[in-house]
Design a protein that fits this description.
A hairpin with a 6-residue loop joins strand 2 and strand 3. The protein is an alpha+beta fold. It has 8 helices and 5 strands, in the order αααααβαβββααβ. The longest helix has 12 residues.
């Protein structure tokens, strides 16, 4: 595990901000983003733009592609920002802090699930060491809802293509994990994300794991031979 891959245990892609500090907005910082490894300053950044695949099913360089897309004038028009706006990542920037607006969301979710018709899905990538799936599982259990379907694997094909695990609770409250995904689940596992979102939006059951049928030990009969 890389020292700064705290949101995806198996992520082997370079963070865009580590090797390409911003050159706009009069930024004079030589560093921007998570800690660098020794020797990183000698890397030819032009080579990094050609990185293709990660260990999961998403492309490296996705962050750079996002910035290029957001810099398109038509996209800026669509999201109602000025065409001369400079869009950048502020994650881990100077002065970037999280401020909690609610000290305890448990009562809110208890009220939502028990007294409304709103369906709730909590999902978590299981290779996110920072906001890990075990914490998410413990949080959902602490709500005190009655379990209607115990922890089980779910698949995308009804056979063996693992999507992750799911636990179901009363009043359409579900907790789902995505196998092999880091923090940004749609980025790391787009195929699996599409599967579970479609199933959830349609109110359909996530397909269970079905063990393969063992090969028969009985010799096949020869139809050309009489019994």
């Amino acid at each position: 595990m890389g020292g700064y891959y705290e949101y995806s245990l198996y992520d082997d892609c370079w963070y865009n901000n580590d090797v390409e500090p911003p050159t706009f907005m009069n930024q004079s910082k030589s560093y921007w983003g998570p800690p660098k490894f020794p020797g990183m300053e000698n890397i030819n950044t032009s080579l990094l733009k050609n990185l293709q695949g990660g260990l999961n099913d998403y492309p490296c360089g996705g962050v750079a592609a996002t910035f290029k897309w957001l810099d398109n004038e038509l996209v800026k028009d669509a999201i109602n920002v000025p065409r001369d706006a400079k869009i950048f990542s502020g994650d881990n920037g100077d002065g970037f802090t999280y401020n909690m607006t609610e000290k305890n969301l448990l009562p809110f979710y208890q009220e939502l699930v028990m007294n409304t018709s709103v369906r709730v899905l909590v999902y978590n990538g299981d290779t996110d060491p920072c906001l890990d799936s075990l914490s998410g599982q413990n949080w959902t259990e602490s709500l005190g809802f009655k379990e209607t379907a115990e922890w089980r694997p779910w698949t995308t094909d009804g056979k063996q293509y693992m999507g992750g695990y799911v636990t179901r609770y009363e009043n359409d409250f579900d907790f789902l994990t995505i196998r092999g995904s880091g923090h940004m689940v749609p980025e790391y596992k787009p195929k699996v994300t599409l599967e579970f979102l479609e199933k959830w939006l349609k109110g359909e059951e996530w397909l269970p794991y079905v063990a393969p049928t063992p090969p028969s030990t009985q010799k096949p009969k020869n139809p050309d031979l009489s019994e």
